[in-house]
Amino acid sequence: MDNVHDRTGDQRIPDSAMADFRAAKRSRTACGYVGAILIAASLMAAALAGTSGSALADYATALMKRVDKAMRADKRLNGAECYTAAPGVIVLYGKVFDDKDRTLAESTALKVHGVKQVVNTLRTETGQWLAEESRINDTLVLNEVQGVSARVIGTEVYLSGQVSSVAEKQRAARVVSSVSNLQVVNFISVVPGPLF
User: Fold this and answer.
1) Which among 11, 53, 127, 189 is most buried, taking Cβ atoms within 10 Å?
2) Bridge-partner residues for 145, per DSSP?
3) What single DSSP character describes residue 8?
4) Are 137 and 159 in contact, with CB atoms under 8 Å apart?
5) Topology given in CATH for the domain delimited by 126-190
6) Where exactly are the structural domains of the chain?
7) Gap between the Cα atoms of 88 and 113, Å rounded
8) Residue 1's pLDDT is what?
């Protein structure tokens, strides 16, 4: 079987195999949906069987490069990386700032010619911040530091609230420092309680 290339010179699945795939996918009445998918998958495998392993590797590499180029066009996606898991399937990994950037990375990859499916395993910076914040606040509660809460933003943890002495304010900062390597910014106010 001759290898077929698209207009960019990248190898693609032959048109006849794609037509067979589409026909099998539509034939839900004879075999049911699962049967149609199995037939389509076997037709695709048969079409690719005549394709050399190096041609498939070249196709996967070219697809990965196109997706990577599309991601690099947007600076919000600089932490996103990708690899090909199967023909037309891209796996995103790495770290982006927030869920909006995570969704943007997925939609950017799907727009690239040749991408049929995206598996998005990207993590977010803000997700890590929330996890660290939760851990710090739990530690404050476990150490019976009352009236104080922590907020994590980047490499800093901001403490706020109200305590009745400077010693309690300092203790809160020590508790946080004992469980986190983040820079502590202490905005806790000291309001002495009644003397009598």
Assistant:
1) 11
2) none
3) T
4) no
5) Alpha-Beta Plaits (3.30.70)
6) 1-51, 52-121, 126-190
7) 9
8) 40
